[in-house]
Structure formats: C-alpha cells, structure tokens
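Hey, sorry to bother you again with one of my protein questions. There's a protein on my desk that I can't quite get my head around. No rush at all, and the record is pasted right below.
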Amino acid sequence: MLNIKLQNKVIDVCDLYYDRKYGKAPPGTKIDLRFAAILEDLNLPQLKAHDAFNDAVSTAQMYVILHDLKARSVYLKATRDWDQPMMPMG
C-alpha cells in the first residue's frame, strides 16, 4: 500500500521447522506448526507468551537450532504423542 520494499530478507522459522520435521515424513503425518509445539520439539523454555521481547528471543533460539540442524542434515522425529496435552502458553 505504501509502495516501499523492506531491505531485509524474510525468514520464517515455521518453514525451517517444517523442513526439519516434516520434510521427509510419510503421507498422512499429522502436522503441528504451533509456536508451543516448535518450542517443545527443540527443548526450548516456554517464556511468557505474547510479549514482544520473549517472542523475539524464542524465535531467535528456534532459528539458531533449526539452522544448525539443517547444516548437519539432521531431521526431527516426525511423530507426536497427540494424546499428551500441550502446556498452555500465556
């Protein structure tokens, strides 16, 4: 709308996570791309949600881990125990 372009490259940790977790998953695999699910799979602490600083720190941690996993060609286990309740965030 403003006819301007951002100079910074856009990186979506969700895309990085999907590639590392579901990129080689068989058809029919349930996909969970929730912020809390990514934190859990990467063994990161769940900081108070909906706080700009905490969300930025968590996202940065996700990026570093996922970038490292990609560099080492490591994939995450593509299954999740769907019967276990996830801890609420916020």
Q: What stands out?
A: Helices lie at 13-22, 35-41, 52-71. The two ends are 33 Å apart (CA to CA). Residues 13-23+33-71 form one domain. The chain has three helices and no strands.
